[in-house]
Amino acid sequence: MTLPYLEPLTLKEPAGLTIPEPPRRGEEGGEPCFPCAPDARDHAIWADDLWSLHNPGQTGLAGSVWLTSRAHFDSFADMPEEYAATLGAVAGKVERAVSSLGDVGRVHVYRWGEGGAHFHLWFVPRPLGRLDMAGPFLPVWEDAQPLVAKDEIEAVGQKIAAAMDA
C-alpha cells in the first residue's frame, strides 16, 4: 500500500476546529438532497424498490459506482429495518457486477457521509495487478488518475447495470 506521491512527504498541522459544522446536502440549511430529487431515479443505472445505483459525475477509475437508498436516512444507525435486511444482498450484487468487468483485483466499499446526509456507499474497483493501489489509499489514487471520459463512464455503467439484472 502506497501513496501516489514521491517522498519526502511532510506532515502538516491539522486545521482548526469548525464548530458548528456546516450543514451537508440534505440537512436543514444545506443544499438540496440529490437522491431525494423527483428525477433522481432517471439518473440511476439500476434500481429496485429500495435502492438505486449511480455512475459518478467524474472518476479516475472506470467502474466506480455509488449505491443509495430510495428513502432519506443518514447512516447505518438510523437505517430502517427493511433496508438493513436487504443491504448485504444488494451490496454483494453490486460487488459481483463491478468485478464482472474484468481486470478488477478487488472492489473496495466506502461510506464517508461527509458530503450528503443521504445514505450511500461507494464501490471502487482496484485494477488487477495494481498492488500499489491496495488498501485505504485507493480513493487517493483514484483522484490522482486522469479522468475517465463521460461516455466511457456511461458505457461501463451500462455493463454494470446489465450484470445487476442478470
From TrEMBL:
<feature type="region of interest" description="Disordered">
    <location>
        <begin position="1"/>
        <end position="31"/>
    </location>
</feature>
<dbReference type="InterPro" id="IPR036265">
    <property type="entry name" value="HIT-like_sf"/>
</dbReference>
<protein>
    <recommendedName>
        <fullName>HIT family protein</fullName>
    </recommendedName>
</protein>
